[in-house]
Amino acid sequence: MSLSPPASSDAAPADARPLLDVVVYPHRSLGPTGFLVLMAVLIACSFTVGLVFYLSGAWPVVGFLGLDVLIVYVAFRLNYRAARAYETVRLTTAALEITKVDPRGRRRSATLQPYWLAVDMDDPPRRDSRLTLRTHGRRLEIGGFLTPDEKLDLARALRRALDQARRPPAAVQPH
Predict the structure, then answer these.
(1) Tens digit of pLDDT for each residue in 92-108?
(2) Predicted TM-score (pTM) of this structure
């Protein structure tokens, strides 16, 4: 999850400045270098074991060991492809904009009015907790791929920003 500070551009109208601008994306603990190291170790182990079987006369086992390496490679590639999904959450005083991008790059957007918006999240979070936005009978789940603690952090940040968005603008005091 990436929390961005609100933009401080004075050129933008007050209702267009973001109070919260967040990009959430799935966590992947194994980066590209780790993937290459893992595959190199797996290939080396499979080759060594395959060589032992080949020299013992059980040469068909070599093909199955190669198949195992291929299956692990394909599984990781599919996992990395799924990691291209992300969601953006942008709150201004006028609207909350949610954009969900799937691994293929397809976008779905929703715009909600922040004044009537409720943020539902278990506190403390459970393993199956959902972060849901609710307004006028409509529900929208966000951050489905986040951990329960990350969902709770996002819910708290969103609630704080919504409280700020609902506050009336400060009156300008004459000097």
Answers:
(1) 988 999 999 998 989 99
(2) 0.69
